Amino acid sequence: MNTQFKKGALELCVLSQLVRGDKYGYELTEKISGVMSIASGTMYPILRKLKADDYVTTYLVESESGPARKYYKLTDKGKQYQADVSQEWEAFTKAVNQLIME
Amino acid sequence: MTKQEYMEKLQEKLERFGRELQEEILEDYRQHFAEGVNEGKSEEEIIEELGNIEEMIRELAEEDLPGEFAQRAMESGAVAERGTKEPARQEDKEERGSANAGAEGHFTYSGSYRAVVLEGKVANIHVERSKDEKIHVDYEAKGVSSQLNYEYYQYEEDGIFYAGVKHRKNLREEDQGEEKMVKVTLFGRTIISYGTVGGFGGGQYITLTVRIPQGLPKLTAKTGSGNIQVSGLELESVDSASGSGNVEIRELVTDRVKGHTGSGNLAVNHTEFISADLGAGSGNISLERIKGKELRCGAGSGNIKVDAAVAEYHLGTGSGNIKVKAVGAAEVVNMSAGSGSVKLELEGAEGMEATVRTSSGSAHIAWGEEEAVKVKNGTYTYGNSACKVKANTGSGSIKVSGK
């Protein structure tokens, strides 16, 4: 699959997961790799980029399992972006589905 | 592979990046291992889950490069700019008036493409040089009615950028009589966009203006009834054709240029090429200040007028006249007219071998400072015979002069 497309889709998945509440990296990658087959490692650059683009912020929480957990939180800009892109996604999949059915 | 080996390999691969980034990714992976172990997974399982390090590095490399560079590095064509961290960069404008309906759209694309393909149908196509690295597409529809007959589109596929106007098919009932612009954007790039423009008649037109960046190798522009203008570009090849409109090409530097029109006129000026293939069905062809190696030019019933510095000329017209001013060291000049006259002025030639043939007209040849003399059909040589001239006409006259 076109990597740009895939990356965009992954970004949307991550942001949508965060709408429901803050999550830490492992939690996010487990959730997504549980549904689609991707190398969890590739999620970290995407998370980093979402942060660089100010769609998310991070904070650390002490953990019993070892190193502190890095949590990701949606910013207002991230929320807006998620809302816009998921709408676009819907319009796109609707159009694609329609064309597949025809 | 053990966790330690995997982490060492990761560290090694991360070395090309900045300190802060290295630490962050290593920390993410450490955390990932800790969480996995805590859930009872083996190191092997976690390594498999994290996957190929190179794949992650590629991902990271794309993000880490400066904006412009990253765009070029990406394997697919259009990507939205990331430079200033905003996702979408298309601006859409639409102006509507009930009395004199019109519509405008503006779209911008970044990316490296192998080619640009434009199809105008009823629209005029203007192609110019972009002032930046992006492709800009502007649509302007004037005086169109509310009837929805045409829509415009742009998309990319396999490294080729397509844009144009097409006839609306399968017009759905609910869409009747309603003007709308539908755009599907995804991840900051326009995947599919439609704007609607109306039916056509007097005073109505659509113009598609596309500005393309330097370094884009191929351009194809075709339209049915619109005009085509291509100017100010440097590229490998240009193919332009209009059914009934005019084709105008100027200030181009290219290896191959093609320009054709069915019933319109064709004009090429200030253009450099290796080979040019130009044709007009019933219109005239005018070529001025062009330079190149090989020129092939054919007109059905129109005139051909050439002012050029080209090595090889192959010119033909059915019922029109041919008039050529050839500057510089021309090697071959072939001119053939059905019923029109043929006139050649050769400048800068060290010699020529002229073969003239006319069925019912007269033929004159002049060399150097000498007066033109009337000649019979035949071959005449002057100087070192360097330039081979052939002039044929059915009922027209022939005038050849060289110096």
Describe this structure in words.
- The complex is a heterodimer of chains A (102) and B (403).
- Chain A has one domain (3-101): Orthogonal Bundle (Arc Repressor Mutant, subunit A), CATH 1.10.10.10.
- Helices cover 61% and strands 19% of the residues of chain A.
- Chain A contains four helices and three strands.
- Chain A has helices at residues 3-19, 25-33, 43-52, 76-101, and strands at residues 23-24, 56-63, 66-74.
- Chain A has a three-stranded antiparallel beta sheet.
- In chain A, strand 2 and strand 3 (66-74) form a beta hairpin.
- In chain A, helix 1 (3-19) packs across helix 3 (43-52) and helix 1 (3-19) crosses helix 4 (76-101).
- Chain B is mainly β.
- Chain B has a 24-stranded mixed beta sheet that branches.
- In chain B, a hairpin with a 2-residue loop joins strand 7 and strand 8 (189-197).
- The N and C termini of chain B lie far apart (82 Å).
- Mean pLDDT of chain B is 80; it is low at 65-101, 170-182 and 198-202.
- Classes of the chains: A alpha+beta (102), B mainly beta (403).
- At the A-B interface, helix 1, helix 2, helix 3, strand 3 and helix 4 of A face helix 2, helix 4 and strand 7 of B.
SSE topology sketch:
The complex is a heterodimer of chains A (102) and B (403).
Chain A: H1 3-19, E1 23-24, H2 25-33, H3 43-52, E2 56-63, E3 66-74, H4 76-101
Antiparallel strand pairs in A: 1-3, 2-3
Helix pairs in contact in A: 1-3, 1-4
Chain B: H1 3-14, H2 19-38, H3 43-50, H4 53-64, H5 67-73, E1 103-109, E2 115-119, E3 124-129, E4 135-142, E5 150-157, E6 160-167, E7 181-186, E8 189-197, E9 205-212, E10 218-223, E11 228-242, E12 247-261, E13 266-280, E14 285-299, E15 304-317, E16 322-327, E17 332-337, E18 342-347, E19 351-358, E20 363-367, E21 373-375, E22 378-383, E23 387-393, E24 398-402
Parallel strand pairs in B: 2-6, 2-10, 3-9, 3-11, 10-11, 11-12, 12-13, 13-14, 14-15, 15-16, 15-17, 16-18, 17-23, 18-24, 19-23, 20-24
Antiparallel strand pairs in B: 1-4, 4-9, 5-6, 5-8, 7-8, 19-22, 20-21
Helix pairs in contact in B: 1-2, 2-3, 4-5
